[in-house]
Amino acid sequence: MEFGTADYYIIGELVACWGSFLICINIFLTFSLYDRRQRFFLYASAATLFAAVFNIASVHLFAVFNTVPVWLNEIVTTSYFFVLLITPFVMSIYVFDIAFSDHKKKNLFTSIGGIIQTLYMLFVLANIKTGWIFYYDKVNGYTRGPLKNITYILTSIYGLSIVLIVLIQRKFLARRITWVFILYPFISFCFVVIQFFYPKIVLTGVASFTSVLFAYLTIQSYTMEINLATGLMNESRLRK
Fold it and tell me: Which of 97, 127, 199, 208 has CB atoms 3.0–4.6 Å from 133's, for a disulfide?
């Protein structure tokens, strides 16, 4: 069934919006909000929510391009690209925080990720003048720019960095965490590939949401078995 306008299938984005919203609410209503690492899930879920919302709004504006100001289309689409890569960036920082006990190494990789993300956001803002990612043609409306694939490239870089760090530091990580973050980029990659070859099927929000949900459920369930004060298994788990 097709939802929305302009021949775009956005049912996945609607699901991503609702699921991300529920994760945000759940974190606010549990102890997770007071755990620094669990707050990363809040940031990632919120970014996924906003990206999906802006994506849906942008798709709708595609269909009514001739009836709304061009600047409105540009603002909405620019906002979408601006928040698009926040989720993979935040999850990368989360993995760095878990994988490294050495604060110097942790800060180094976090700084590298921060620089990449900052440059990307500046690139998105510059697109308003350059049109490298997208621009609006008076006849055709939304038109992809020559460097549109930068989002796919950076998503792959974030995913690859997660896998490499986890593999390198696997001796210091719980087996469950290791496997979760090896599979995490793969899940996202599958949806991104579908999106790349079938652009009418809008799945960028689904890719982020599915990956975050998978990590959230598995990591969250693991930390619930751990006493946060001691780092040891809860007594109920030790008896099994």
Answer: 127
Cα–Cα distance for residue pair 21/170, rounded to 1 Å? 32
Contacts 24+ apart (CB under 8 A), 23-29: 23/212, 23/213, 23/216, 24/49
226: β partners:
233
Distances (CA, A) of 57 to 13, 36, 68, 108: 11, 32, 13, 37
Alpha carbons 184 and 213: distance in angstroms, whole number:
10
Q: How confident is the model at residue 33 (pLDDT cuts 50, 70, 90)?
A: low
Q: What is the DSSP string of 9-62?
A: B-HHHHHHHHHHHHHHHHHHTSGGGGSHHHHHHHHHHHHHHHHHHHHHHHHHHH
Rounded Cα distance, 77 and 74, in Å: 5
Whole-model pTM? Answer: 0.82
Q: Look at residue 100 and give its three-state secondary structure.
A: coil
What is the phi/psi pair of residue 137, to 5°? -85, 140
Q: Return the sign of the alpha-carbon dihedral for residues 64, 67, 73, 75.
A: negative
